[in-house]
Amino acid sequence: MSRLCLLASALVGCSLLFGACGGNRPAAAVRQLAAGDLLFHVVAEGNAITDVTPGMIDHVAIVITPDSVLEAVPSEGVHLTVVDSLLCQDGHWLQGRVAHADVAQSIANARRYLGQPYDSLYLCDNEAIYCSELVQFSFVDAQGKLLFQPIPMSFHDDSGRILPYWTAFYHRNGLAVPEGQPGTNPGELSQRPQVQVIGLLQE
């Protein structure tokens, strides 16, 4: 089943979509989480992040235990969160599994960022960190090499025009929009070849 079908089924929650995509319905995660899995938050309506990134995904968290994740959020920076609290949020969560990762070392790397402030400016050269950047900095293979290389940051629409929201946002912070600077985003991360989308996280 294609990633597009998974996202569509997550957003609508309609079993008819699976038939339209070939009938190969993915098994729902049903809380069967493994350390090192990724949870991607799928929103029903677009926002400033999804308007300039692939899909309808605006956040990603790293599974530490079957009941907890490590995530970077604006209100608390990098912190541990219980999975139950994720399920109380609006939208849906997709479970992804990372291939070729040294899970133990990747989680150890992620834990080193506990307490770091959230990077609301999405910059690559400061000590703050945002959600997908936490994943990109943490995951390594058996040789200790980063699994996820940065990509050029995107703040533009399909026509290439930088959205007014981001122009105004960075202007308020005395900065130019970091268009094309190295970074990452949760939607693009979900499409990396190292990430297998397993299904929906359910209660």
Question: What does it look like?
Answer:
The chain has 203 residues and is of the alpha+beta class. It is built from seven helices and eight strands; from the N terminus they run ααββββαβααβαβαβ. The protein has helices at residues 3-12, 16-20, 83-87, 103-111, 131-138, 164-172, 186-190; strands at residues 38-42, 57-65, 68-73, 77-82, 92-98, 151-152, 182-183, 195-200. The strands form two sheets. A six-stranded antiparallel beta sheet has the order 4-3-2-1-5-8. A two-stranded antiparallel ribbon has the order 6-7. Helix 4 crosses helix 5 (131-138). The two termini are 23 Å apart.
Radius of gyration: 17 Å
Low-confidence stretches: 1-27
Q: Strand-and-helix sequence, N→C? A: HHEEEEHEHHEHEHE
How does the overall form come out from the CA principal axes?
A: globular
Task: Give the overall average pLDDT.
Answer: 86
CA distance, first residue to last residue: 23 Å
Summing up helix and strand content along with how strands pair, one would put the structural category as: alpha+beta
- Total number of β-strand segments? 8
Q: How many helices does DSSP assign?
A: 7
Strand order across the biggest sheet?
4-3-2-1-5-8
Strand content: 15-25%
Largest sheet: 6 strands, antiparallel
Helix content: 25-40%
Write the layout of secondary structure elements.
Blueprint: H1 3-12, H2 16-20, E1 38-42, E2 57-65, E3 68-73, E4 77-82, H3 83-87, E5 92-98, H4 103-111, H5 131-138, E6 151-152, H6 164-172, E7 182-183, H7 186-190, E8 195-200
Antiparallel strand pairs: 1-2, 1-5, 2-3, 3-4, 5-8, 6-7
Helix pairs in contact: 4-5
